[in-house]
Design goal:
TIM Barrel; disordered C terminus; Ala_racemase_N; Pyridoxal phosphate homeostasis protein
């Protein structure tokens, strides 16, 4: 199957899952994960109508964005972001889905103020409670959201998580439900209120489940581009370097 055909199938799966969850067929945004994928293959997806692209590593994302300059796309940083990479990530990304600490918020704010622009951000939460994963502990989210009110250039839009790497569907759903509950509480109690509606959760192996549990954004790569040569452990600390674990994006 071509990239365009696979992309069509993913969109249809998203649409069906959205309808099953009682929402409109276009209620969920697809971020196509392009890590390790050459620009010309990404361009095939763009030609098929894909506009939201996601990268895990800053240098790879910057190179790819430069190669695809002029294309009608919006880039999201979806991997762990080091504060010393802020300048580079803001050269291409219009969204950061992995905001997980105040030091990063400060670094982003400082650079954004210099650039005179704002940035959409999602707060990353470690819903699986794994030491190997980045993200805030669920209990720390309310305080973090209050702290974010000091940063004028950051526009918090919601939350992101990675479910536990396991074939246990109920455990995966549990991780997604925790994030949904965090979002629902934040809509009611956080200073940002109703703007915190986004839930970025679900990847190539579990995005249908994530949508059923309330995802508004899914991050999918391998379902469109096929298996990667490098295991997920190359991109996500703690992810097993196995074919089963490489279902993740």
């Amino acid at each position: 199957m071509s990239i365009a055909d696979k992309l069509h199938d993913v969109r249809e799966t998203i649409r069906a899952a959205s309808l099953r969850s009682g929402r409109a067929g276009d209620a969920v945004r697809l971020v196509l994960v392009t890590k390790t994928i050459e620009p010309e293959r990404v361009r095939e997806a763009i030609r098929a109508g894909q506009t939201d692209l996601g990268e895990n590593k800053v240098q790879e994302g910057r190179r790819k964005a430069e190669a695809l300059a002029g294309e009608p796309v919006r880039w999201a940083m979806i991997g762990h972001l080091q504060s010393n990479k802020v300048k580079d990530v803001l050269r291409f990304a219009g969204e950061v889905q992995s905001l997980d600490r105040l030091s990063l918020a400060r670094a982003l704010e400082k650079r954004l103020q210099f650039l005179g622009r704002g940035l959409d951000v999602l707060v990353q939460v470690n819903t699986s409670n794994e030491a190997s994963k980045f993200g805030l502990a669920p209990a720390d989210v309310p305080g973090f959201l209050k702290e974010l009110t000091a940063f004028d250039a950051l526009r918090p839009k919601g939350f992101m998580t990675l479910a536990r790497f396991t074939p246990d569907e109920e455990e995966v759903r549990r991780c997604f439900r925790i994030l949904r509950q965090i979002r629902d509480h934040a809509l009611r109690d956080a200073p940002q209120g109703e703007v915190l509606s986004e839930l970025s959760m679900g990847m190539s192996g579990d995005y249908g489940i994530a949508i059923e549990e309330g995802a508004t954004v899914v991050r999918v790569g391998q379902a469109v581009f096929g298996p990667r040569a490098l295991p997920d452990s190359h991109y996500w600390p703690g992810a097993p370097g196995t074919e089963a674990a490489d279902r993740t994006r």
